[in-house]
Amino acid sequence: MVAELRQVVEQQTQGQFTIGDRALEIEPMRVPDDGREALPRQDLFTVRQALARLAEDIGLRRSAVENARWTASRWPKEHRQSGVSFTVHRVLGGIPDEEERFAAIKQPPEGKSRWTVDDANRRVGRQVENPASPQEKITAIHSLARDEEVAAVVTSDFLRRPAVAAQVKAEDKVRVVKEFTRDENVAVTAVTGLLRRPDVAFKAMSDDTARHQVNHAQVERSRQARDQFEDTSPVAPAVRHIDRTVEFLDLVTACHSFVAAAGRAVPGLRDRTLGEDERTIVHENVAKVRATLDWIETAVDTGKVDMDGELARLLKGE
Known about the structure:
Shape: elongated
Strand content: under 5%
Number of domains: 5
Number of strands: 0
Radius of gyration: 41 Å
Largest sheet: none
Distance between the termini: 86 Å
Number of helices: 16
Structural class: mainly alpha
């Protein structure tokens, strides 16, 4: 059966070349001003009209006649290979250099006795029908997933496969997560879930910027809740008085705690000489304490609690 069908294919190849040769006699290939030979469906309008009439006269589509004409133009009779299908001739016709083209069709891929359409497509860098290598499979997937809805479903399905997700590079995973969390609602849900994992929360808070943003968010949320309470609650005036009392007690307690702690620690230095590094550390902390006490006095006397840049840097240890 294979031998019989190869004869049929050979007959079809000869028939296709005959159609192409006759179409070339009617309309020879023309070279536009840019010096490049026109591809099928890119000829002059008058050429397309003539080929359309020929196609109607022989009962074929114009595109079939155009392809046959172009392929015949790429393969002079002396360079056409018996046993090689017309389709392979057409695909290999895409090799620009004539010498390379004529030599290629005589040399099937290594380990094979004849050309296949997929091998011809590989030779000219086109997508194959039956992908074999990983890159060919990737190309096929990209081609099938050009539609955004299809791509979204395929991506979701792939990422549900642990073995697939495990092979994705770390930087690619980060990029995917960033892309998926552009939507604020999605980002909030994702971050909330991640921070419930102790190991993730610990590592995240090791980043100074992330820790600062979390602290800032907590303060801001408390401020917003307080503002809303003061704007809407009928008992807000009484609570404000209690708040001030609590703040006063907190401040006095902090001062008492510091004095008591210092009273316990300083006597222990009797007859003891600290090393240079130890003295440096103590002096740095005393400076922070002095600056903090000045800040407390300013806040108590004026009600202004904003700290200047120098104090902020000092308390951060900068």
